[in-house]
Write a structure and sequence with these properties.
The chain has 11 helices and 13 strands. It has helices at residues 2-22, 33-47, 52-55, 77-86, 169-180, 202-211, 215-219, 240-253, 318-329, 334-348, 364-368, and strands at 59-67, 74-75, 103-112, 119-129, 141-148, 151-159, 222-230, 237-238, 258-267, 271-280, 283-284, 290-296, 303-310.
Length: 369
């Protein structure tokens, strides 16, 4: 047992030294296989239609669960249990209804820990598939998990918008905002070369360059043949040159007072997951959160691919998805709905077959009475 412990300590020391070298002396982000497996197990239990009461065991009692398809965060395990029962089928992490066959397919995952306080971070990019392996359209999502002591303490989950994608429509709105506030995406800073913070990861330096509106610096952090997906758009941006044109187009529409704030990062030598939001002059803007997942070329240290999913602007579709899921799972619900619609039509619009005029034809004094 002693020799085993000595061997384990030696291997751990070597790995730590390599990771410290890779991250250039920055706070070491170490992969956390156990917590990564906890998240995998949680998603597997959702696929297996395990009851919410059992799934809740993965969560801390004071968990904060943010599903970007709803307006408000869910605070605490009791509230989360109610959400999973009430909104089952509205989104993947809200659990599936028994009548559906979709499952979560993990595309990639990254995990890390930066200290000895038993905390870790896990980021997952996934989509939904059918039993035959067919992908369900417009279901790519990214979720970010914070864990402590083997329990999930925080979740942020965001799904790509439905087709047709918003595309440049959001940029046009931002351009209008820029004109109204008298700001045509003024570059932050005086144009002098900035000192690079070597303690920042490559993805954090990307966001930093964005906030300076230095798109040359931003795209220099990507490989020449990078592939980027901004899921506001239908197609990917292939290569550094095409991605730079996209960034410049966005820059021209984004007010200079807007800044991307990185909330958290899950980092390994080859992958990174980032959760972020947008602020205006230091004040967080509503409905501007998002999550990104990047792969990193280990030889160059540059970003080689990425997915970026911003939070959908209102109206949020969570409640509508809940209603839709209930009717799909239990078609018998259509019977009372059809009866109610028919009754309303007969009462307010139709002139027969029931005796009397419809309610809209009543005199004003009748309504007043």
């Amino acid at each position: 047992q002693l020799r085993t412990a000595e061997l384990h300590n030696a291997v751990t020391s070597i790995l730590d030294a390599k990771l410290d070298f890779i991250f250039g002396g920055a706070p070491t982000a170490r992969p956390t296989a156990n917590d990564e497996n906890i998240v995998r197990s949680f998603l597997g239990d959702i696929n297996a239609r395990v009851p919410p009461s059992t799934i809740l065991e993965y969560f801390d009692h004071d968990v904060k669960f943010i599903d970007a398809s709803f307006y408000n965060a869910i605070d605490g395990r009791e509230a989360l249990e109610k959400h999973m029962f009430l909104h089952s089928g509205s989104s993947a992490l809200s659990t599936f209804t028994d009548g559906t066959s979709q499952v979560i397919e993990i595309d990639d995952i990254v995990s890390s820990s930066t200290g000895d306080d038993d905390t870790s971070k896990v980021c997952v990019i996934y989509h939904l598939t059918l039993p035959g392996g067919e992908d369900v359209e417009d279901t790519t999502a990214i979720s970010f998990y914070n864990l402590q002591g083997g329990k999930i303490t925080r979740v942020f989950d965001v799904t790509e918008p439905s087709s047709p994608k918003p595309g440049d429509s959001g940029l046009k709105l931002l351009k209008l905002v820029s004109k109204l506030i008298g700001d045509e995406s003024i570059v932050v800073g005086d144009g002098s070369s900035a000192v690079v913070d070597t303690n920042l990861s490559v993805v954090e330096r990307y966001f930093e360059a964005w906030n300076k509106r230095d798109m040359k610096e931003a795209v220099s952090l990507f490989t020449e043949d990078c592939n980027m997906r901004d899921l506001q758009y239908d197609s990917e941006f292939k290569g550094r040159a095409e991605f730079e044109r996209h960034l410049l187009r966005v820059k021209d529409c984004l007010p200079g007072s807007f800044e991307f704030v990185v909330d958290d990062v899950a980092l390994s030598p080859t992958k990174a997951g980032v959760v972020w939001h947008v602020e205006n002059d230091g004040s967080p803007l509503a409905f501007t959160r998002g999550c990104s997942f990047y792969t990193i070329d280990q030889r160059s240290g540059l970003i080689e691919s990425g997915f970026e999913i911003p939070e959908k602007a209102p109206p949020k579709m969570g409640w509508l998805n809940t209603v839709k899921a209930k009717f799909v799972a239990e078609p018998v619900r259509f019977i009372p709905l059809v009866i109610w619609v028919g009754y309303m039509f007969e009462l307010f619009i139709a002139d027969g077959p029931l005796p009397g005029v419809n309610a809209l034809a009543l005199e004003q004094r009748t309504w007043e009475e």
